[in-house]
Amino acid sequence: MKAMIIDDERPARRELRRLLTDFSWVEVVGEAGNVDQAAEMVETLNPELLFLDIQMPGGSGFDLLSRLERLPEVIFTTAYDEYAVRAFEVDALDYLLKPIDPARLAEALGRVKSAQAARTPQPDAVLEKIFVRDGSRCWFVPLREVRLLSSEGNYIRLSWGKSQPLLGRALAALEQRLDPNRFFRANRRQIINLDFIENVELGVNGRLHAQLRDGPEVEISRRQARLFKTKMSI
Amino acid sequence: MNDAGRPIAPPKSQLAYWIFQLTGWGLFTVTRFVSSAAVLETPWIRLLLENLFLDGVGLLFSHWLRDFVRRHHWSELPIRKTIWRIIIAGLVLGAPLGLVTQFTGLSALHDPAFLKPYAPAIGFQLTLSASIAVEIVNWAVVFIIWLTIYFTAIAVRKHRSAQLKQSELARALQLAELRLLKSQLNPHFLFNALNTVRSLIADNPSRAQSAVTRLANTLRYTLSSRQDELVTLSQELDIVADYLELESMRFEDRLRIEKHVPVDAAGVHIPVMLLQTLVENAIKHGIAESPSGGVLRISAVLQNGMLVLEVENPRPPAPIRTAHEGVGLRNAHDRLRLLFGERASLELNLSKPGVATARLRIPLQQ
Description:
The complex is a heterodimer.
Chain A: E1 2-6, H1 10-20, E2 27-32, H2 35-45, E3 49-53, H3 61-67, E4 73-78, H4 82-89, E5 94-97, H5 102-118, E6 129-134, E7 137-142, E8 146-152, E9 155-160, E10 166-167, H6 171-175, E11 183-185, E12 190-193, E13 197-202, E14 208-212, E15 217-220, H7 222-232
Parallel strand pairs in A: 1-2, 1-3, 3-4, 4-5
Antiparallel strand pairs in A: 6-7, 8-9, 8-12, 9-10, 11-12, 13-14, 14-15
Chain B: H1 11-39, H2 44-71, H3 79-102, H4 112-115, H5 128-181, H6 187-203, H7 205-224, E1 230-232, H8 233-251, E2 255-260, E3 269-271, H9 274-287, E4 294-303, E5 306-314, H10 327-340, E6 345-349, E7 355-363
Parallel strand pairs in B: 2-4
Antiparallel strand pairs in B: 1-3, 4-5, 5-7, 6-7
Helix pairs in contact in B: 1-2, 2-3, 3-5, 5-10, 6-7, 6-8, 7-8, 8-9
């Protein structure tokens, strides 16, 4: 597994590299000391796992994640951050406290391994999860759990469980990266997750109304309704 | 008699009480004796004995009254309730004494017949009961005055001890506040330093050893700083040096240090951990936030009876604001105010581009 270490302190990077020599299946392909450098390296090296410090000069670890197109697995490394703990409240991510306990590192890596094994292989272009940062809260959002994506100007509002976080991207750009078997463009402003459709009713002028589980009713435009019927073979 | 609830007066106030009692009653006796002997034809020895007897009983009554008042906590009652009690107590104690006085030679002082030569217009005669009533009221007034003086003295004493307590409380509060405002152990620094040490153990064991010693010095200083308020600048600089050495192991060439401290400034007393706080701040918001790091400059100069300390650090173009920013500086500010009032100052100067300077002015102690 290709991994990258991102930390602004060289002794800290060196120490983690040394700890990782015990895990031969983890190959450290690169190191970065700040967010700009890291963003560039992640795009070219394409690591599957990031060891990411939170406080760094010129931007935090969270800043890096919201800039990345493709999200690798992430293990946060931090000396002491109430910040990080706050972010983890809402998401089951792993994090390591520095100085890193080798046993905790083994545990975290084991979790990464089993998460990878459980995942069904997807074509490279399809996004599985995205990092969302809304105000002081951060989430790793698995896209299959999102029932609705609504365009709000240059942003996307995600309907995900009880939260409605805002994602700083345009809907059209994200649409190309979504799994076409799961997501369907209902109208100019909305994309729905087909897994969440409870029932569909006929509306006027050939439109359809799809009722989403736990969510709103979404109107499928006339043009898209035809597509929808073919797709669902109704 | 069980009077466990009775407050026990300290010996000093007990003595003061007896001095007041004897002086008060003594003056009362002397005045009455002199005035009665001057106008009455009764033999002076009889007047003296009668006066001594009556006022002796008065003294005993007032002493017993004090005991009673304390046992029933009259001084804690609202003033209106106290006034009624004072009047009733005056009449109750005044009654026997008034009655006795009627049958002494002193009663002649209230005889209208006796007053005739001075005021010929007086044409009435006092009945016996009216005469007794006058004596009783006279004595009641004496006890009312006595109680009024007593309660006034108590109120003054209470007020004074409350004031004392207030100022003690204010001082304790100030001390607690000072203790709280002192730089606490910075966990971020501590864990990062430990991580550096861990890394050095394999890479450079002798550096790791020196790092542990410096870390121990820094921790000891931080922990013991709770006792002292002021240290000399050179003591504080020693610990700043240890701290900076640890931070340069972490930041390596990102942290460059310059120090200009003249010899005559080294002995000046400054608040403990204050320079350390400024340096920590400079690292946190200057060096740690800038990818290429920069120069941290510490300088001291003596100027017009003041020590001027400056800590300068590079300022990243777009500082990342966190909720905790400024807490260190604000605490330092509050400590200075508590220790020196308006004579000391601390300001953060951001006028130079790309540089932040914290300037501290402390008056030289005599």
